[in-house]
Amino acid sequence: MRDLFAIIYEDAGLLVINKSAGLVCHPTKKDACSSLVGRLRLYLGEATRPHLVSRLDRETSGAIVVAKNPEAAGALGKIWETRAVEKKYLAIVHGRVREEHGVIEAPLGTDERSRVAIKDCVRADGAVARTEFRVERRFTWSESDFSLLRIVPHTGRKHQIRIHLAHLGHPIVGDKLYGGDEELYLAFVQGRLTPEQRGRLLLPNHALHASGVRFVWRGQPVRFQAEPEQWFYDFVSGKSAGTSADEEC
Which of 57, 111, 120, 175 is catalytic? Predict the structure, then answer.
């Protein structure tokens, strides 16, 4: 049995972990190892009820904050409610982003034209959303151009970073839903992705990583950083398309 997850920090009430790509947060199967919550219960004890203060999409890797008890959940919940939290992400996107730094301000709401119920889009009557980005590196892989971005979301809308970057014209590498062909997402959830479709995606999971989170905890400023998985680094360095960990413990 391999490690349940990588621990970044832990005290009596707070647990910060580095979630691997491909692992869902909430249980969808009976197997405890198939979800983050299941693994947390294995780690903390079946009688515990860990609370995910922050969440990530299945394919997004990186830092997740967990409250180990109700007291910590209440305290951390207040911090998140007041938005006194700074989150940082790394993303690999298609194309060479021209601006060194920019802010995307575009309202988000339900994509009523999509066949995918969970899909959102930029729309004039949507909720306010703001994403800041900075180019870390531009590179070429397999004769195609890509950019590595550092991202700071200033609001927390569903799929915000993924939608905003696609709206900018630079979708995240491996994004099945917002990469330009939602048939890839439908094929994925239905378990019928073809080798040709997998090849088009370039990566098994989309290249979005929650690299850090900062807030005040117990009266002290804290900052937690999470390193991306090796496949993320390998793609940026041009070594390979990479693979990601499976969901088995």
Answer: 57
